[in-house]
């Protein structure tokens, strides 16, 4: 991990995000929640979508941050919302350019209604695009939307279909009945 540190210091947002993750989890470096938060913010403020999304959860007062050492960080609802808005904007731009992880994240946001109204149709659209682009884990997202998501799109038969797809791809998925 230390080979990324010079890049993070020079302002490379991808290196900053990776180092933030390393300090958060103690991967290759000693755990350091303060340094992790600083690097997440630097990356997010440059437009790193995943760093902004991570900050949303880390700063959200009602969220439980993992690992436990991250709980000591000060919570800030307005900063949390700022980073969610930034993440949503970047995910949209990246998804429109074909970035599969951004499609998955948009599916997740619409599925749960985070930063947007809960919209099962939009969740299905983005999870489907991610699946078609090769993210097999999107089958799990589709299963969940159809099984327990937006009541306007719940469909047990489709949930079972996507559950089977997810199991076929060895994706972790919930048990449905």
Molecular structure report:
It is built from 9 helices and no strands. The chain is mostly helical and 177 residues long. Helices cover 63% and strands 0% of the residues. The termini are far apart. The protein has helices at 5-9, 13-25, 33-45, 49-59, 77-96, 100-112, 120-132, 138-148, 156-168. The protein folds into 2 domains: 1-97; 98-171, Serine Threonine Protein Phosphatase 5, Tetratricopeptide repeat, CATH 1.25.40.
List keywords for this structure.
9 helices, single chain, mainly alpha, Serine Threonine Protein Phosphatase 5, Tetratricopeptide repeat, 177 residues, elongated
The gist of it:
With about 180 residues, this protein is mostly helical. It is about 65% helix and about 0% strand. It contains nine helices and no strands.
Shape: elongated
The radius of gyration over CA amounts to: 17 Å
**What's the order of the H and E elements?**
HHHHHHHHH
Beta-strand content estimate:
under 5%
Number of domains: 2
Helical coverage, percent range: 55-70%
Low-confidence stretches: none
Number of strands: 0
Sheet bearing the most strands, described? none
- Euclidean distance between termini CA atoms: 44 Å
Global structural class: mainly alpha
Q: How much is the average pLDDT? A: 93
Q: From the structure provided, what is the oligomeric state, counting identical versus distinct chains?
A: single chain
SSE order and pairing:
Blueprint (H helix, E strand, L loop, with lengths): L4 H5 L3 H13 L7 H13 L3 H11 L17 H20 L3 H13 L7 H13 L5 H11 L7 H13 L9
């Amino acid at each position: 991990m230390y080979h990324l540190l010079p890049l993070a210091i020079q302002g490379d947002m991808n290196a900053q995000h990776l180092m933030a993750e390393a300090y958060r989890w103690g991967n290759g470096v000693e755990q350091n929640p303060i340094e992790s938060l600083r690097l997440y913010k630097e990356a997010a403020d440059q437009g790193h979508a995943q760093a902004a999304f991570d900050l949303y959860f880390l700063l959200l007062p009602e969220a439980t941050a993992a690992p436990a050492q991250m709980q000591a960080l000060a919570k800030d609802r307005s900063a949390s919302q700022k980073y969610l808005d930034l993440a949503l904007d970047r995910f949209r731009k990246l998804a429109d350019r074909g970035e599969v992880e951004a499609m998955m994240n948009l599916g997740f946001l619409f599925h749960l209604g985070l930063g947007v109204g809960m919209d099962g149709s939009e969740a299905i659209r983005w999870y489907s695009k991610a699946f078609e682009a090769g993210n097999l884990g999107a089958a799990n997202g589709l299963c969940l939307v159809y099984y327990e998501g937006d009541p306007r799109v719940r469909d047990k038969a489709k949930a079972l279909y996507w559950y089977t797809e997810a199991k076929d791809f060895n994706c972790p998925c919930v048990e449905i009945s």
